[in-house]
Amino acid sequence: MTNAALKTQSNDPSFKDLLDELQWRGLVALNTDEDALRKALNETKITYYIGFDPTAPSLHLGNLVQLLIMRRLQLAGHKPLALIGGSTGLVGDPRPTAERTLNTKETVSEWVEKLGKQASRFLSFEGDNPARLVNNLDWTAPLSAIDFLRDIGKYFRVGTMLSKDAVSARLNSEHGISYTEFSYQILQGYDYLELFRRYDCTLQMGGSDQWGNLTSGTDLIRKVEGKSVHILATPLITNSDGQKFGKSEGNAVWLDAEFTSPYAFYQFWLNVDDADVIDRLKVFTFLTKAEIEDLAKQTAEAPHLRAAQKRLALEVTTLVHSAQAAQAAIDASAALFGQGDLAALDIDTLQSALGELPNTQAAIGTPITQLLIETGLVDSISAGRRAIKEGGVYVNNEKIIDEAAVLNDLLHSKFAVLRRGKKTLAGVFAL
RNA sequence: GGCUAGUUACCCAAGUGGCCAAAGGGAACUGACUGUAAAUCAGCUGGCUCAGCCUUCGGGGGUUCGAAUCCCUCACUAGCCA
Fold first, then answer.
1. Which of A46, A49, A299, A421 is the least crowded, having the fewest Cβ atoms under 10 Å away?
2. Average pLDDT of A207-230?
3. What is the arithmetic mean of pLDDT over A293-306?
């Protein structure tokens, strides 16, 4: 369970202090009293937390931003609390679009387990400032509705609650908002209070879209305990073209290898735009300022070599999966995107490369459309036919023209490389 | 509790009895150009045993030769009234 990558990480000593580095990396969108926060970070070892709600069976790239900033603070000697939202996940934070569908308690608790394990991979649980995993269900589950309303609810003004962006956006939309999601901010505020009491936690971090929920905690602590605590919000990562970051072919990029294979993960990073790659290096790697500036220079001078993308893909894949997985992805990429003559690849290289891809077994004579479905390259036979009609399907780099084509050419009498478009690949092992 | 207006494909949004598998835009995907880029241009986007057929327009029921379109009912949403 220990992650070898943890040992090699460090903050960049060339910065005056941690906050400077975080700002340079573009990780600070908003924060409470900056001088006080800087002072706290520089002069003391504080305890801080970030919450992750179990809304899916895996964490995604947005969560990774948070995990890495957590790690950066831990490297500076501060104590991380990774909170998995066993209770908040049951309620669901208000999204700007529409009400969430509630998941069953069983599902959520399963996800809590999974996310906890995943998050643990990015933090050290050893040394002087070990990370701690907490679950807000521990303190909210025993709370009765009456206690909740009397002891906590009394501190929250509805006017303030209504003014939060997440709430007002929903109120102004045709979807409205349920009392359940409206209450979310109270739960998150209460979490901060509870962590402040239990662990003397004085900093909460989170995405800037969570600002309303973050301030809910500081307000509560000020009212109840008379103490002023900190918030640091990270910006939402967006692509330079304004599109959502973290999607590959319309799907989220997950940290769990079962949902996004290490190969697909590697490819995702390799395909980052020139315009974005330097920002990504700052956020998602522990490379120093000097190293990143060097890569920026290389990108400017020889963009086609994509040195920055390659380094980024290597670093992040190593971090999230492993050095071995990253190397396998690199080898597979080199083989499959190589000079084009797949037949020239030797059996072992081809076999392991295909193993990195989504793959399936099939007999000679199987329709190509069926193979496309089995490997997940398309969702339906119609989509497969369409893809062929559009000239976007290749078997062993040969374009397929006929919608009814079947598998017949094999490499080394064993394999076939299936491709949709330029870079979506899958393997077929002949039976 | 009452009244009014809504609920359309991934998102926004047109359509108000047959010409609707459903306009338009966004986004995704594919092709060309490239660097496994960006921009641009073109194509394409329910499913299938694919020149045809099947299932879709909040859920259920009904009217009709025929419904996304009309009626009833339920759910949800917004606004107003209580």
1. A421
2. 93
3. 93
Write out pLDDT tens, residues A372-396: 999 999 989 999 999 999 999 999 9
Instruction: Answer positive or negative: Cα dihedral of A292, A297, A300, A306.
Output: negative
* Superfamily (CATH) of domain A247-336: Tyrosyl-Transfer RNA Synthetase (1.10.240.10)
**Architecture of the domain made up of A5-234:** 3-Layer(aba) Sandwich (3.40)
Architecture (CATH level 2) of domain A349-430: Roll (3.10)
Residue nearest to nucleotide B26 (CA to C1'): A243
* A420 CB closer than 7 A to any strand B atom: yes
Tally: H helices and E strands in chain A: 21, 13
Nearest protein residue to nucleotide B78 (CA to C1' distance) is A174
Distance of CA A397 to the CA centre of its chain: 33
CB A424 under 7 Å to nucleic chain B: yes
